[in-house]
Design brief:
With about 350 residues, the chain is α+β, with helices and mostly antiparallel strands. It has 7 helices and 15 strands.
């Protein structure tokens, strides 16, 4: 029988449609549907030698005199860094000028090597660049929230093939963030401890939805997963803001992310996906009730009329089966070594 499950963090309901459940391996891409990209493209603005095709960089990490990470303003930025915030109201209509930041993190000089295939050192540099830019951008008093995210593949919304992430900082707190903050505060007021820490603890005790664990992080498929193979990566240590992550945790996050993305890559044939670092608003950096985490959403199904009309999602797989499948995905030797850490 189908089952309704509620996400304890957002209070969203999801339908687990067991009557039409699909087996995990049925989501894997066929070999002929997986794009093969060259290591260099002369038309790509993110490839080495084409640096003049992007705005001047705000950050660069190098190795042996060659850049490994470049952070540049988005050439087609959604927001403008210049100006002051001007909010206006006319009746129920609210407007504000689009002040903020929109940056691109070029994750590697290799056009054809995506995040799942990079070394742990390379992924750690990506995480380091996230933190460095977060801290710098959050110093701007006009910024209330910083969103760090990655779109991988056309179905996830990417427009350029070269591996990259994005950072958008806004002068307002996004509604998804506000909703999570409000639910977390309500839970903390009622119980005196962090909702996210409790979710993580209960999942670790249950074990059926755990995908991978490291000394500092726990990777799991949510109990009320909105879509197939969605995953959360929780820091074990309570932190409201991603900016509080420490060097040893950045190294560990790089390893955990590399394993989980590797399992998707080898188990499901490199599906399109989004991931988002769900961190607190800048002013709530030391909040006791919020807990940042990374949300990973493979784009294996389409949002249709019911989801748009109701705000509820239909998941045609069992989260427990998804987690079991991912646990069983064998990684190549280099990645498997990391998995055993």
């Amino acid at each position: 029988m189908p089952q309704l499950r509620q996400n304890p963090i957002t209070k969203d309901w999801v339908i687990i449609a067991t009557e039409r459940a699909r087996r995990p391996h049925e989501f894997a891409k066929k070999a002929e549907d997986r794009p093969t990209l060259p290591s260099y493209s002369e038309r790509c603005p993110f490839c080495p030698g084409n640096e003049q095709m992007t705005p001047p960089e705000t950050m660069r990490l190098e190795r042996d005199g060659q850049w490994q990470i470049r952070v540049v303003p988005n050439k087609f930025s959604a927001l403008s860094r210049e100006g002051e915030i001007d909010r206006q109201a006319k009746g129920l209509q609210r407007t504000a000028n689009g002040i903020g930041y929109h940056e691109v993190v070029v994750e590697t000089p290799d056009h054809g090597r995506n995040l799942a295939l990079l070394s742990e050192d390379d992924v750690e540099r990506v995480v380091q660049s996230y933190k460095a830019r977060y801290i710098e951008i959050a110093k701007d008093p006009r910024v209330l929230h910083v969103t760090i995210f990655k779109n991988h593949g056309k179905d996830a919304g990417t427009s350029l093939e070269h591996p990259h992430s994005q950072i958008i900082a806004t002068p307002v707190i996004p509604p998804n963030v506000r909703g999570r903050m409000e639910e977390a505060l309500r839970f903390y007021d009622e119980n005196g401890y962090c909702l996210f820490c409790q979710v993580m603890q209960e999942e670790m005790e249950d074990g059926t939805r755990i995908v991978h664990q490291t000394p500092h992080f726990v990777c799991l498929v949510p109990y009320a997963s909105l879509s197939p193979f969605a995953a959360w990566v929780f820091p074990r240590r309570h932190m409201a803001s991603f900016s509080e992550i420490q060097p040893e945790e950045m190294r560990d996050l790089a390893g955990a992310l590399r394993v989980v993305l590797g399992k998707l890559y080898y188990g499901l044939g490199d599906p399109d996906y989004n991931f988002i670092i769900r961190t607190s608003p800048c002013e709530n950096r030391y909040s006791r009730h919020y807990h940042w985490y990374l949300s990973l959403i493979p784009r294996l199904t389409k949002v249709a009329g019911f989801e748009l009309g109701s705000g509820m999602y239909i998941n045609v797989t069992l989260p427990e089966a998804n987690a079991e499948f991912l646990r069983g995905v064998a990684l190549p030797e280099a990645a498997a070594t990391q998995e055993s850490r």
